[in-house]
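Pilot study result, target chain (309 residues):
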Amino acid sequence: MSTPLPTRLDGVPLAVRTQNLTKRFGRQTALDDVSLQVPEGAVYVLIGPNGAGKSTTLKVLLDLVRADSGTAEVCGVDPRTRGPEARAQTGYVPERLDWGYGWMRVGRLLEHHAAYFPAWDREYAARLGRIFGIEPERRMGTLSKGQSRRVHLIMALAHRPPVLVLDEPTDGLDPVMLDEALGLLAEHVADTPTTVLVSTHQVHDVERLADHVGVMRDGRLVLQAPRDVLHRDLRRYRAEVPEGWAGAPELNGAVLRRGALGREIQWTIWGGERDVAQRLARAGAVVRDAAPLTLQEAAITLLSRKDQP
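Predicted structure:
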């Protein structure tokens, strides 16, 4: 049972799409044949460790980095040929917040940013500023990481773009402000037709928002699926096995993580629960439990998986 993990989302309209993106920086391959598919209206969480290629992928969508090969689209617009139009439809929070405006006061930066977006909602921006505790007279260069992150969230949200591209948006936020920011993001998505693409390695921060998941490792997209499919098909099986058990050859390629204590195994396996249980039973195992994983647990399993034949 060699079960390839799903990497395509077929049959749904897409707000963001890349096809076969490849990018190298010198000898290092940052992106290796990445085909990202973000459905319209989704909250798509792109998970991976630092250096996996997440930020490079997002920058390609905004024409801030050019891929060596492959294509990208944001709301049907090719950012390589129509970069300003793609960026106009996008609210962006970068991973690194130093945009060279350290000398500028917060209020002036927001006014400057608003000038580029005719749909800028001043009342909404002011409300967000109050909730985030923004001080308009402060200079950007004097703000903490978390305070700068809040300013950039206002810049991303206040023109109510059809697509939000958020690169580590919770980084630097204290627990109270993190909860506030996630609540505002959920409220924003409920009130405004929006597709959200969130890149993070802090999975637990955004778990409650995600309805689609992508997992990147070493520049490759190793999984891409709706959250409910991940919940249904990735499970941890606890089973009793006989002495000298030879394993379950029918599941080769589908077992993502293995653990054992005495005659009890705990295997994390991709596949339909009934089919997997039947294959384990044919191999002599007695399944005692099959439990879905949290998004955090699924991410750890997928990122720590060793490639199997």
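One observation from the pilot: The mean pLDDT is 92. A full batch analysis is planned for the follow-on phase.
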